[in-house]
């Protein structure tokens, strides 16, 4: 016969197990929702190239290795914004790999490095997805800037950082104002609306 204390212990163990299961399910749902941003009604979304879609298996492979499998669509959207999947460095990951443009000449190395770099950036950003995305374009210095000033990502923070970096550049001619708004703000370092573009591509992937 099972004692009263043992029955109580069994009930307690079952309760804890059910509670942990509920927490796991809730966390999975939240992560799933974060990966699938809401598509706005009547929004015209940009197309995703066949080249980018063709690299999904490689992106999934390395995303799993770096524990960011839930963010494959974000990585594909970044690739689309960076290169549309063209060339030998579709993630434009050379600078994070060797400190200069063009040193990567192998697609798989580009994806492996790009995923690794984004995983590192997301961790440094304490999980702030928008901050991590913008920092893929600006560099990790943007994370320190945001954490020191506002504490979280905003487009205004991106504009202010870009303007500051552009003003401090020894040779401003190496930068090209990618958008007319950037020229208006004298914010020609990187792409001030990088997050906006990446998220639009991400929504396109969600609809597929």
How would you characterize this protein structure?
- The structure is a single chain.
- The chain contains 11 helices and no strands.
- The longest helix is centred in the first third of the chain and has 32 residues, at 4-35.
- It is mainly alpha-helical.
- The chain has 2 domains: 1-35; 50-152 and 191-207, Orthogonal Bundle (Lysozyme), CATH 1.10.530.
Biggest sheet layout = none
Which structural category do the helix and sheet elements fall into?
A: mainly alpha
Total DSSP E strands: 0
Write the H/E string, N to C: HHHHHHHHHHH
First-to-last CA distance:
59 Å
- Low-confidence region ranges: 28-34
| Percent of residues in beta strands | under 5%
> How would you classify the quaternary structure?
single chain
Q: Could you tell me the radius of gyration in angstroms?
A: 21 Å
Any guess at the CATH architecture of the largest domain? Orthogonal Bundle
Shape: globular
In round numbers, the mean pLDDT is 87
CATH class division of the largest domain = Mainly Alpha
What are the defining features of this structure?
globular; single chain; 208 residues; 2 domains; mainly alpha; Lysozyme
């Amino acid at each position: 016969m099972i004692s009263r204390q043992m029955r109580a212990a069994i009930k307690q163990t079952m309760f804890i197990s059910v509670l942990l299961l509920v927490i796991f399910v809730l966390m999975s749902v939240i992560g799933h929702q974060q990966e699938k941003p809401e598509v706005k009604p009547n929004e015209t979304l940009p197309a995703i190239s066949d080249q980018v879609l063709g690299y999904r298996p490689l992106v999934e492979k390395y995303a799993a290795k770096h524990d960011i499998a839930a963010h494959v669509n974000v990585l594909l959207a970044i690739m689309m914004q960076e290169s549309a999947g063209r060339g030998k460095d579709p993630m434009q990951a050379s600078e994070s790999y060797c400190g200069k443009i063009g040193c990567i000449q192998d697609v798989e190395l580009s994806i492996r490095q790009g995923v690794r770099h984004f995983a590192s950036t997301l961790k440094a950003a304490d999980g702030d997805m928008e901050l991590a995305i913008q920092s893929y374009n600006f560099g990790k210095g943007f994370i320190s800037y945001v954490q020191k000033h506002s504490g979280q990502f905003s487009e205004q923070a991106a504009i202010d950082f870009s303007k500051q970096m552009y003003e401090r550049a020894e040779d401003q001619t190496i930068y090209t104002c990618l958008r007319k708004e950037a020229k208006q703000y004298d914010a020609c370092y990187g792409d001030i609306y990088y997050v906006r573009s990446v998220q639009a591509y991400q929504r396109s992937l969600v609809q597929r």
